[in-house]
Amino acid sequence: MVTNGAPLPGRAGTGESRSTLTTAAPNSPAETFDDPEADVPSRKLTGRTATLVTVLAAGLSCYALYWVVGIVQPQIYRVSFLLITLVLTFLVFPALPRWRERVTWTDWALAAVSVAALAWPIIDFEQFVYRAATPTGLDLALGAVTTLLVLEATRRTVGPILPVTAVAFLLYGYYGPFLELVGLELFAHRGYDVARLVGTLYMTLEGIFGVPLNVCATFIILFTIFGSILGHSGAGQFFITWTMSAFGRSESGAGPGRTVTLSGFLLGTVSGSGVATTVTLGAVVWPMLRRAGFSAEIGGGILSASGIGAIMAPPMMGAAAFLIAEFLQITYLQVIVMAIIPAILYYLSIVLMIEADARRLGTRAVDVDVPSVGELTRRAGYQFLPLISIIALLVTGMTPFRAVFLSTLLAVGLSFLRKENALRPRRLVAALEAGGRGVLSVAATTATAGVIVGVVTLTGLGLKLSGIIVSLAGGNIFLTVVYAAVAVWMLGLAVPVTASYIIAAVMIAPALTLVGVPDFAAHMFIFYYAVLSEVSPPTALSPFAAAAITGGNPFQTMMLTWKYTLPAFLVPFAFTVSPEGAGVLLQAPVGDVIRTVGTAAVGVSALAMGLGGWLRQATTPVERVLAIAGGLLLFYATAATDIMGVLLFGAAIALHLVRTR
C-alpha cells in the first residue's frame, strides 16, 4: 500500500498469490516529481541564502514568463538569463561533495564575478555588439572569465566530461595549424588566436549566447515552469493513480508493469526529464512491482525505461526536441507530430517486453484499490486540460511560447478547483522556484555546448567530419546511418542528451544529409540516439536512480533497461534508410504512413517475442532467432524487406503455435 510514495501495510496476507495495493488520493503532489535536481547533488539551503535562492529562482521564472508578453532585446535577454542562472548554480551546486552543507566564500566570489562579467555586455551594449572583430583588453578578460565560469558551472551540474570536451575544442581552435605537423591533415585548419575565439564566443550570438542557450532561455524554461506548476497542483499523483485504475487491474502479473509504463508516459508529457520521471515512478509504484514479484533489477529496468520515455513523449519531450525546431527552422508543432509514432512504438516495445517477462517469471496479479476510471476522471479529469490546451493552441497557429504561457495560467486557475491543490502564494512561489532551479543544469550545458558549436562553426570541423563518415561508408546510405548511430552513441557515453544532440547536430547530421537523408529525419535520428546516453555508462542516470530506489544492482538494472528500450531504438533506422520510412515521422503520403507504421509496430512485436523469449510459452532458440531476424528486416522500410520480415516472424509464430498446441 502506498500513499505519496510511502509504503503502508497492505490488506492481503503474506503468501497469497494475489496482493492488494492502495494508493493515495489522486491529487496529492509527489515530492519527487517536484524535485528539479533529482539527478544532481544540489545543496539543501537554509536561512538567508535559501531566501535569496528562492527570490532569484522564482524571479528567473517570472522573467521568462514576462519575456513572452514583454519586449526584451534578444542578446540582452540571453546574457541576463545566463547571469542569473550562473549565480544560482554557484549557490545551489557545491564545487565538491564535502561542501554540500554550506555555501563557501569561493561560491560567493564566483557568483560576484559572474555578475561583473555578464553585466558588462549589458551596460556597454550599444558599443559592445560592434567590437566582436576587435575586442578590447577588458572584453578579452571578461570573455575569458565568462568562458571559465560556464565550464565550472557545467562541471558542477553534469560532471567534468563535457567541460573537458569543450576545452579540447578550444585547443583545437587555437592549435589547428599544428595538426598538419603530426599527420592529421584532414583536421588541420588555419588556427585562431585568443582574440578571435573570445570575440566569437563572448561577443556574438554564435558561441555561448548562441542557439542552444537561446532555446534554453525560451522554450525549455517555459516548459519547465509548466511542468513544475502541474507537479505542485497534484497532476503527477493524479496521472499515476488514473493509470493504476485504467491499466493496473489484470489477472496476470503484467498489470503493474503496464501501469508503470503508461504512468511514465503521462508524467513524461509534463516532465521532459528521464531521471525525474524515474524517481517519481519509483517512489510511488515500486512497492506494487515488488508485490507482483518483479525482482529489484527487473523492476528498476521497467522504472527507468518508462522514465526515459519522458525525453521523447510529446508535448514537452526533452530539451533537445526544442533544439530540433530551432536548428531546422520549423514549428515546434511539427516536431511534436514527428515524435508521435516513435513515442508510441517506444512504449509499445516496453509493454510487450513486460508482458513476456511477467509470464516467463510467473509474477502475480495485484489488486489496485483505487476508484474507478470514471470516478477519477469526474473528480480530477481537469488535470488533462492544460496538456490538451497546449496542442490545441499550437494547432491554431499560436507560437509555442504563448501556448505554454496560456496553458500555465490555465493550470494555475484549475488548481483552485480543489482546495488541497490550490496554488496559493506560498505554493505558487515554490512552483516558480522549482521551475527556475530546474533549468540550471540545462542552462550550463547549453552554454558549454555553445562553446563547442562556435569552434566547430569557426573551423569547419563539422563538414570535415561528415565528409570522413561518408567516405568511410563509400556513400552507402545504410553504412552511413550505422556509422552515424555509433558516433552519436559513443558521444552519448560521455555527455548528457542535450549536449550530445547539439554536438551531433553540427558534426554528424550533415553526413546523413549528404547521402540523401532528409534533414528532419537526420535530426530526429540523432535525437533518438542521443537518448541512449540515458541507458549507457557512465551517464546512465535513470537506471542508477532506479537501482537506488529498488536496491538492485546498478549494472544489471542498466542492462535490463537497455533490453526494454532496444527495440524502440531500431525505429530511427526505419525513417532514415529509405524514403518510404519517413512515414514513421508522418512526413510521407498516407499510403507510406500506414505501411511503415504498421510494419514498424509488427517489427517491435517480433523483437519483443525474440528478446523476451515468450509467446504462449517459452520460445525456443530457433523461434527467437526467426523473430529477431524478422523484426530487424521490418525496420528497413522497403517492400522486399517487409515481406521477408513478415514471413520470418510468421514462421516463428507458426512453429511456436504448432509446438505448444
Q: Indicate the overall shape.
A: globular
Instruction: Bin the helical content.
Output: 55-70%
Number of helices: 31
Structural class: mainly alpha
Largest sheet: 2 strands, antiparallel
Mean pLDDT: 85
Radius of gyration (CA) equals 25 Å
Q: Work out the number of β strands.
A: 4
Query: How far is the N terminus from the C terminus?
Result: 40 Å
What topology, given as strand order, has the largest sheet? Answer: 1-2
Low-confidence stretches: 1-39
Give the DSSP E fraction (strand runs of 2 or more residues). Answer: under 5%
Task: Give a verbal description of the structure.
The chain has 661 residues and is mostly helical. The chain is 68% helix and 2% strand. The protein contains 31 helices and 4 strands. It has helices at 31-34, 47-69, 74-92, 105-123, 125-128, 137-158, 161-174, 194-203, 211-232, 235-247, 254-271, 274-292, 296-308, 319-328, 332-361, 373-380, 385-395, 400-415, 425-437, 440-459, 461-472, 477-492, 497-507, 509-514, 519-530, 541-550, 554-565, 571-574, 590-612, 621-634, 639-659, and strands spanning 2-3, 6-7, 19-22, 366-369. It has a two-stranded antiparallel ribbon with strand order 1-2. Strands 3-4 form a two-stranded parallel sheet. Strand 1 (2-3) and strand 2 (6-7) form a beta hairpin. Helix 9 (211-232) runs antiparallel to helix 19 and helix 17 runs antiparallel to helix 18. The longest helix has 30 residues, at 332-361.
